[in-house]
Model the fold of this input.
Amino acid sequence: MRFITLFIVLILLSNCKKEDKFKDVKIFGHAGDGLDMSTAPYQENTLEAIEYTLSYPEVAGVEIDIQWSKDGTAWLFHDENLDSQTNGSGCVRSKTDSELESIHYQGVQKEKLPKLNEIATLVSNRKVILDLKSYGGCGVELSNQERQAALIEFNSLLTNTEVYAIVQDLTDVNFYNNLGWKTILEVYNKDSYFAVVNWQNSSGCTLRNESITSDEIHNIQSKGKEVILFNIKSPKAIKKSLKKGPDIILSDDIKATLIQKIR
Amino acid sequence: MLRFALISSLFYCFSFNIHAQDRDFGISIGLTYTPTDFFVKAACNITDKRFQKSPFLALGINRTFFQQRLYPEIGFQFSYIINDQKIRLLPYAQMSIARLKITNDNAHYWLNNELGIRLEWHNKRDFGIQFGYRNLNEFWSFNKRLDKAFDFGFTTGIYMVL
Done:
């Protein structure tokens, strides 16, 4: 009885009104509901993870990792090889669609690998960041046209969705602009962003939380570009990253990030 | 205010058996790992022949202490002492409920059912470890969403007979 009374008292104490302390920072789920996180209820880059994260109204959207199958279909998967996380082996690019359909993640819930087109309805009226992976050395090398065909098809399925494409170079920036997407460059630090030829054509950059300071973020933002931070796992890292004032945080722990943001 | 509440709650838990002279009563303090957080746990253990009943209160360390957002869990563990010797083995069943307020409109509740086994070095100051497999039911207060998952929990701690 004492424990129950105490439990109720503790709940009442925790019920005070909270307010958003970092209104300008948008929260996105990294790889759905967190990359390599034991606290995440579902496996990364799955339909379940995306649906879970988007159930929070305070979350602006999700970031997901895209790779192409041998058949030219866009699939959601982070690592180059399937071996460590799924019941499959080899890389995504070496597999046909029917082979990938039979693969599931290891773990209790055995979530399936989703196709990019399957998430279109989930992200309607929200934002989505596509990290377009380009691993080399394994499987079939698709042409740019083949890869882009899958993205065009995905774009046609969207309803009021704002899309960001994370890329390693700006070769196809016009293609993304034509789709109405924002192009985000993946860089190591502020200097490497400004060292890219035509960096002005991008909408912004994404980089690790620990590799940029608050002043550097403001410097990039003063040029009209957006800054997206990732690798934010612990409560301490979440607090630091929010204080830096980026435009977007790719959070690996949605609950911890919302708790830190809305206090 | 929160710190005061935490200190008071720990004192409150410890006051449970201050006057109990019976060796069948005791308190235990433990550290539990679960997929949702690490918990510091205080339990009252009541042993009746080979059965042990343990109501407990736990606090999520990351959320409560590092993020100042109270994350309490209250539960009850029922265990059976297989061999009442120096090294004891106790299979157990446990039910608990945890609550975490995330935003103004949204609090999450976890209803956890756990089955597992506890290994204890039974002496004046016992030391034990337990390993369990739990079914987590995460309930969202604002949209009535329910997420079900299975995962493991691990606890280590000391048990003091008063």
